[in-house]
Write a structure and sequence with these properties.
A hairpin with a 5-residue loop joins strand 1 and strand 2. A two-stranded antiparallel ribbon has the order 1-2. It is mainly alpha-helical. It has one domain: Orthogonal Bundle (Arc Repressor Mutant, subunit A).
């Protein structure tokens, strides 16, 4: 059996994926003193606009974005992309992702709980290490493909 590290992608909910993508899109515009319209955000990130409304409401409720109603309204980040750790996004959209519900019962319960708690702590530490800035695709990178 090989002990080489493998690339195991994390299975995120579509909702969390969309939240990261729309925040990354807002991050591209940060500091330009303009608000992004929901239709523009939905089109840029290929997200259904009616679903995006719900996600934006949750992000606003968590203090990650600001919004303004009306003809001149729209959405913007509440702070710099580098000041938004990924853990804040996860907690806003899928806080239960960081919870564990193992029981310390049975012969193996304590060991199973301990190991998965350790794995969860490493995952949480990585979420604190990366920020929204890491997800933002800058203009120079648009159209670039990585192999």
């Amino acid at each position: 059996m090989s002990h080489e590290p493998k690339n195991y992608p994390v299975k995120l909910s579509r909702k969390l994926e969309y939240a990261c993508r729309v925040l990354a899109q807002l991050g591209r515009n940060h500091g330009q003193n303009k608000l992004a319209h929901i239709e523009t955000l939905a089109a840029a990130e290929a997200i259904p606009a009616n679903y995006l409304v719900q996600i934006l409401n949750e992000l606003r409720g968590a203090g990650l974005i600001i919004s303004k109603r009306g003809k001149q309204g729209g959405y913007a980040l509440a702070k710099e992309p580098r000041q938004i750790p990924l853990i804040d996004i996860v907690e806003a959209i899928e806080g239960e992702l960081l919870e564990h519900n193992f029981e310390n019962t049975g012969h193996s319960g304590r060991r199973v709980t301990g190991i998965w708690s350790e794995v969860g702590a490493v995952f949480e530490a990585k979420l604190r290490e990366y920020t929204l800035e890491d997800l933002v695709v800058r203009e120079a990178e648009v159209g670039m493909y990585y192999i």
